[in-house]
Amino acid sequence: SARSPREEFLKVCTLEVGDAYGLTELLGEENELETSLVSRGCECVIIHKDIYSLLLNKHTKDKIRSKVLFYPTYGEMKKKLLNFYTWKSYKDTIQGKQGNR
Fold first, then answer.
1. In this structure, how many other beta carbons lie within 10 angstroms of the beta carbon of residue 24?
2. What is the residue-wise DSSP string for 42-75?
3. Residue 17 DSSP symbol
4. What residues contact residue 16 under an 8 Å CB cut-off, 6+ apart?
5. Per-residue pLDDT tens for 34-93?
6. Which of 19, 66, 70, 99 could form a disulfide with 15 if both were Cys (CB 3.0 to 4.6 A apart)?
7. Whole-number Å distance between alpha carbons of 85 and 26
8. Closest CA to 27 of 76, 73, 70
9. CA–CA distance, 87 with 96 (Å, rounded to integer)
């Protein structure tokens, strides 16, 4: 049987008070990554895209653009994950050699 690809979760960023998540598409930017918002009890306001689009004007769009965090590309995240596993493998190898002394 074929193995299904293993899902990996990477922390992209931490939102602070006043930060916005999920608005890049309203600004005409495509996000090629599937992202999830994980919360430890913060308050989130969810507004349907169609309603939000009705309220957008140039001034609001410019204000959002200055607040929105643009996420890394799939290639950048893949490289970050590869670097993480390369470092972890190296560290585990070094620690293993030191434990054998």
1. 18
2. -------HHHHHHH--HHHHHHHHHHBPPPPPHH
3. T
4. none
5. 777 777 777 777 888 788 778 888 888 888 777 777 777 888 888 988 998 899 999 988
6. 19
7. 34
8. 70
9. 14
